[in-house]
Amino acid sequence: MDNQETASYKLTQDRDKDKFYNQEVRLEEGIDVGSLFSGKGTTFSVKEEAPFNSLEDANKASTWDFNEISPIGIDLDAHKNGAFKGIEHLFTEKLTEDGFIVKQLIKPGSGPMIPSRAWVKIHYSTYAEGHDEPIDSTRLRSRPHNFILGDGVNIAAVEIAVSSMKKGEKSRFLAHHLYCYGEMGVPPRIPKKARLLLDIEVMMYLDDDKINEYDSMSPDDRKDIPLEGILKLGSICRQKGNEVFKKNTKQAYNNYLKGYKILDNHSPADEEEGWKLEEEKIRICLNLAQACLEQGRTVDSRRYSEEAAKYLLNENLNSSNKLAKAHYTIFKSYMKEQKLSDAKSALEEAVKHAPDDTTIREAFVKLEKAQARENELERNTGLDVGRGMGWI
Q1: What is the DSSP string of 152-175?
Q2: The pTM is what?
Q3: Band (384; pLDDT cuts 50, 70, 90)
Q4: How wide is the angle at C-alpha 195 spanned by C-alphas 193 and 197, nearest 5°?
Q5: Please, what is the Cα angle at 51 between 50 and 57, to 5 degrees?
């Protein structure tokens, strides 16, 4: 890993001064700033809610046997009294230029290494130097840890470690305190300047090349995917549809529909999550509407356009251009069905949201010509053909 990559993990390294890792933590109560500036100092307690290396099971951990907790095994004799010096020689792969994170491969994985922004599901156990019991373990909780790689929800050591792994891989890592909890640690469970030993197993991950894995996931696993992972999957499907739209609208439609279903099957945790889901669904619905229109599926085209327009009425999602696009697509679907009156109503809605759009203005001219031809045909034949011919 080069210096720029190391910097991306927000590490602060100063060779001339004390080194520390600037890890953001939540406190139980606010700090008395006055005491800090006066030089008297102050004390504080860290809130036990860190997504990785959470201390919520600290008390429970002491009741577990060391062998039971470690999923991939640690040489207890070499690790006697919690010291890492007896096992350092096992970690032969350097992950950072400074050598402060080293790796031991236990079980090889398959496929490529996990890319940045992938949704990852792992099991881990974490040990602090000087402690015989783990300070945290997902296996104790029987609940894997899920996250988007690169989001910064984990300590830097975990981000770097996981980015070196593959699907199904089990590995161990020794990490310097600069990449963990810094000079201060998190007493009493994590001592000052404590190195950590990480046992990590990659259960699965999803990225651009693994979109099909979503289909094979159980409903429970799908529920574990965080909102950003769902939005990413929806976006991937939409982009894949865009890539093939001009060559194969049916294939594009299938990609859009897959993304739509992934978004639709996700239950938002709150109103804000609901808006984010709808924002991506608007994009997919507009593309679905266009794909259906190209295939002559006018009713389906209107259905998706109307769904997009419904979401766009929300003031948090409102977009005049997208509303105009939705109504313009509805206009085109009615024109294909020779329903000029309905087409006119849709076009009038479109122009409200994009009054200066030249495409919509030109459509009015075409619509007027179509209505004139229709009126002339009715006069010549005595038949009501207003819903019998398409002109555009």
Answers
A1: S-S-HHHHHHHTT--BT-EEEEEE
A2: 0.53
A3: low
A4: 160
A5: 70
